[in-house]
Amino acid sequence: MISNRNLRAHRIAGLEGGTAGPRLIVTGAVHGNETAGTKGIRRVLREIDDGDIEIVHGTVTFVPVCNPLAYNHVRRMGERNLNRRLQPTATPQDNEDRIAGVLCQWLAEHDVLLDLHSFRSHGEPFVMRGPADNRDPLEPFSHATAEAQLAAHVGVRRVVEGWMPAYAEGVARRRARGLTPGAVHEDPSYGIGTTEYMRSQGGCGVTLECGQHDDPAGPDVAYFAIRQTLALLGLADIPLAPPAQPFECLQLTEVTDRHAEADRFVKPWTSFDPLAQGELIAVRADGSELRAPQAGYIVFPDVSALPGHEWFYLAQASARPL
Fold first, then answer.
1. Phi and psi torsions of 210, nearest 5°
2. What is the dihedral of CA 152, 253, 201, 6, to 10 degrees?
3. Which residues pair with 314 in a beta bridge?
4. Which of the 8 DSSP states describes residue 181?
């Protein structure tokens, strides 16, 4: 068990090129039951200690466990979801607020983020990228090309975008129906997690979903992605493997919340299961049906979602190539 009272980072600075060079931060266990990234990071740290990987340029910071309380209890959250409403505050109210005060400072000190996660249902790994370059108030951004290059080299072929617009649309739905006890925050900024905060500070980053939580291959996915990122940014003299083409680019289009415990899926969905237009997805406690508005995919179906929280997302093919 690690301490719940501190947050640990491992920082290595290359000595070639002085203080110049990219500043990379790699994070694991933002959700405590998602340990593929933690294991991948620790494997890379061992190889650095053994001299098998040498950081020669720039700076890399590894945070194997971002949420010690959740990690020690092998659960998604400590007291709330760290990857929602991630921001520093002068008056921290809970475990995740205290972590954010440190983690946000570390993120702001870097240029690039590789955030390592996993998911509940079975399925192949995928990477989540941010928006195209824009000046919109929701998520302004100017490093889409660099972020796309990173997404292309982490070793997976499926690329997903559209998190913040889909989340903002979900917020609008919540406002329309009114908050219920236990409902998530009625603010689009509640959707800000690690990568969104990184972009708000002038950097770029991707979230790599390394597969299902208990998939034994997950740590290998994380390990390969870390090595690829070190190679891509020139932090270490290791070979860069080619991208895992062809890519499948998808865009999240909407999120549906669970309203009641009796809301149920009609089958055990897996992320990226295809949906036909009009296909029945779930049934509410009151008997109302939720059907796919058009052909597409279901993403992040969560049978354990609490009422008032995200239940599943829908996705379509993206018109934006990688």
1. -85, 10
2. -90
3. 254, 298
4. T
Contacts 24+ apart (CB under 8 A), 286-294: 290/256
pTM above 0.90, yes or no: yes
261-264, long-range: CB within 8 Å, 24+ apart, which pairs?
261/285, 261/307, 263/307, 263/311
Q: What is the structure's pLDDT at 186?
A: 57
Q: Which two tokens stand for residue 33?
A: 């039951």
Q: Which of 21, 35, 24, 49 is nearest to 228 (CA)?
A: 24
Please tell me the predicted confidence (pLDDT) of residue 181. 47
80-105 as b/e, with b when 16 or more CB fall inside 10 Å?
Answer: bbbbbbbeeeeeeeebbbbbbeebbe
User: Distances from the Cα of 65 to the Cαs of 7, 9, 117, 218, 246, in angstroms?
Assistant: 8, 9, 11, 16, 32
Provide the percentage of residues in the chain whose pLDDT is more than 70. 96
pLDDT digits (tens, 9 = 90+) for 63-83: 999 999 999 999 999 999 999
Location of structure tokens 């058009």: 294
If phi > 0 it is left, if psi is from -120 to 50 it is alpha, else beta; for residue 208 that is beta
> Which residue type is seen at 197?
Y
How far apart are the C-alpha atoms of 259 and 162, rounded to whole Å? 23
What pLDDT, on the 0 to 100 scale, is given for residue 196?
97
CA dihedral 180, 119, 2, 79 (to 10 degrees): 0
Place of tokens 């390394």: 210
> Which domains, and CATH codes, for the chain?
10-248 (3.40.630.10), 250-317 (2.40.50.100)
Alpha-carbon span 313 to 256, nearest angstrom: 6
The pair of structure tokens assigned to 67 is 């949420």
